[in-house]
Amino acid sequence: MDTLLKPAHIDLPASPRSGQRPDPNHADCRGVASVLSRVGDKWSVFVIMMLGDGPKRFNELKRMINGISQRMLTLTLRGLERDGLVTRTIFPTIPPRVDYELTDLGRGLSRPVEALGKWAMEHLAQIEAARTRFDKRGEH
Amino acid sequence: MDTLLKPAHIDLPASPRSGQRPDPNHADCRGVASVLSRVGDKWSVFVIMMLGDGPKRFNELKRMINGISQRMLTLTLRGLERDGLVTRTIFPTIPPRVDYELTDLGRGLSRPVEALGKWAMEHLAQIEAARTRFDKRGEH
DNA sequence: CCGCATCCGTTCTGATACTG
DNA sequence: CAGTATCAGAACGGATGCGG
């Protein structure tokens, strides 16, 4: 079990040398980063959104997201489970069935996440326009 | 200028085979993903937050974030600039001075982002507890 | 049906050194 | 001070095959 499905996450970039003196204001930045990188994870956001509707099965999620590979979905779900954002319920039937559902914590997170998603959809055009403009200028 | 400071971003995972039939509901997921991955970018969130206070200089930002390397800060700022979220103002003085500031678009984004950051800080303890618990069980 | 493990290419990151 | 170039190591991500 050496390589496992390496979650890796980010945990902490490990606080820098002791010689440094970050503003106390930003002392918690590292910790926050580890939470945000879960959210920032491309797939996590989608999974959280999909699960906002209610519990889903593995392949149901896979189908909904559709661009995701099995591996990444497994990894994402594990990460979410690890962080206490989703629960994993196994029904030892044949064939097996596994349901994923948001915890209260996860449901709380889904609100800001959906706000972000909403914003993203509304301003998508503007951003893409800006991107195109920028790229055109850059290609000197 | 071959390797440059490769931005790479994500742009689009490129939509899958045409044989697939994702719910129309998720047709725009890909586009949203490219926006979210900017937000999800560990550093982007911090930069946006820092800039929420007002314009900042390059090294000022570097100092505030403190875990970031010069390279990553440059990359992050470029990406943000590309997306039309921040402006870059150069003062051709000696020594040179460059100010970064949120655009209106960026300021709009900073609201949901800060909500997310706020949530992250408030629930950090719960998440870390869940993580520890999970890891302890995993280390069979 | 659910999910773990391995191979293996691609991408990201940090450290360092060099310009204007 | 602000930024670029380069390189080597780490992490990510997908495809495939196996097992409960």
UniProtKB/TrEMBL annotation, chains A, B:
Pfam families: HxlR
Annotated keywords: DNA-binding, Transcription, Transcription regulation
Protein name in the entry: Transcriptional regulator
PROSITE patterns given in the database record: HTH_HXLR
Keyword Transferase: no
Start and end residues of each HTH hxlR-type domain: 29-128
InterPro entries: HTH_HxlR (IPR002577), WH-like_DNA-bd_sf (IPR036388), WH_DNA-bd_sf (IPR036390)
Coiled coil: none
Gene3D superfamilies tied to this protein: Winged helix-like DNA-binding domain superfamily/Winged helix DNA-binding domain
One Gene Ontology MF term: DNA binding
